[in-house]
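Deviation from plan, reported transparently: 5-amino-5-deoxy-1-O-phosphono-D-mannitol complex.
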Amino acid sequence: MCGIVGYIGRRDVAPLLLEGLQRLEYRGYDSAGVVITGKTGDLRVVKAKGRVRELQARVPKRFAGTTGIAHTRWATHGKPSDLNAHPHLDNDEKVAVVHNGIIDNASELRARLVAEGAELVSETDTEVLAHLIARSAAETLEQKVRDALRSVEGTYGLAVLHRDFPDRIVVARNGSPVVLGIGEKEMFVASDVAALVAHTRQVVTLEDGEMATLKADDFRTYTTEGSRTSATPTTVEWEAESYDMGGHDTYMHKEICEQAEAVDRVLRGRIDDRFATVRLDGLNLDAREARGVRRIKILGCGTSYHAGQIGAQLIEELARIPSDAEPASEFRYRNAVVDPDTLYLAVSQSGETYDVLAAVQELKRKGARVLGVVNVVGSAIARESDGGMYVHAGPEVCVVSTKCFTNTVVAFALLALHLGRVRDLSVADGRRIIAGLRKLPEQIEQVLKTEPDIKRLATHFADARSMLFVGRVRGYPVAREAALKLKEVSYVHAEAYPASELKHGPLALVEPAMPTVAIVPDDDLLEKNRAAMEEIKARSGRILAVAHQEQEKADHTIVVPKNEDELDPILMGIPLQLFAYHTALALGRDIDKPRNLAKSVTVE
Ligand code: M6R
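Because the crystal trials were delayed, the predicted structure below was used instead.
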């Protein structure tokens, strides 16, 4: 999605802004732009369709200044083009705005501005903001921005420069993240800490309905109504290097390879051997309340939804609480019955996914208790929730989620164990699951060592135009996630089905040109899974099995280490992340920036 970077201080601003934009490239975008306050006080703008390097090539040699804002745009209103790229200016070039989010009443506002004589040159919703701010008769920039926002319906994270107020950047947030970076005699603003953590780890995250004024040696925050708010900077957990590629060719590869240490982190400090349980203080749910939960509903999108499906199974198995997962994007539109005895869990890597956030807000409005299962500390979903747990995967930069999926599933295993142990899970079973969890980091390392074989298999299957992924019960969400990984990074069509449903339709697809990936854990359903493979073989289908032992019916088997039955899905997903990665590599795809996708979907 779109990205914002801004700086005010004493340093040459253009290189800082371009570097910040590069750090936001992972979010997905189609054009970029920058505006600085030049030596004479004029606003100087450069924009380019395409990548930040194309913008960089257009920046003139003499482009000096110490204040500026910049943007990467992901088209919503109007195609990707130089003209539609941000920043947007008013006709007198007094005001420059960069904006993330969507102005819902942009058409009405455009019509009104045109009737008043404004000339709008782009197809974007954002341009109206520049005109509205420029037309305000208020005395201060803060009041002008406030005036403009009063006419606006929609979501925004925005930053504004004004020729008549060269000593400041004014920013505002409603539904789209804005983070201030507090430096020594310099201030930063960004839509994501990744853009500023190389310069300062002291940050202030704005709340919805908050604005801020940044000057070189000072900042203040206030509501859109103008009352001051308190803003104590917090320290970002991660060093700048955590956002670098660390010697890997892609972030996806780096993040797949980091999973053993990431899992170690989600477990660290949480296991309570004495009572064969885990401590999850952030849930804000005491034992009595935990016992009173009648149902659990897990909401997330994409990979987080798939992690939630495995989570629901773990909770049912270990805590015997009826649980299910649903895409938040569907849930929020179907006027679901909100039950006071149901505990709602909102799952998100970024903590900013709009559909999940909107579902949380709707649930809260109806009095439900919502816990967050989130990776990014202090993100909107974490803050909106009544409590929750961080999954501690570390910064995930690649659009394609890998390590966060694994860590989220492990976090669900901890939650299931915790809920199980305040209900009917025995001490012996608690110990068994804890032992299984402790084995995971080493077992992940073992899986990662099989990468050369997986690469060979991925190259072998890379000519397939379509692939079928099947699994049963615990294996089914693994199959769904693996199919999503393959399609989003390699663009190979992939379809996931419960193996039990093969006879009810998908068997018709099976032929040599449509290979099947079968998830075949050594559990009570092993024979059923073998029978499904038999059916596929009988129709001349090619099979790649992910299993705990070589599978006779499969053409190829990726063998993964066995853990406790309940925890098997965690390890079985990892080789298929590598499979998707190597397929994409064999097909020459842009692995970290798959086409049409963005890392955080902060708009509807
Ligand atoms: O940040 P979130 O976990 O809320 O993001 C949800 C989905 O947009 C995300 O998982 C998406 O499906 C990824 N591209 C999957 O790799």
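The domain at 245-446 is CATH 3.40.50.10490 (Rossmann fold). We consider this an acceptable substitute for the interim report.
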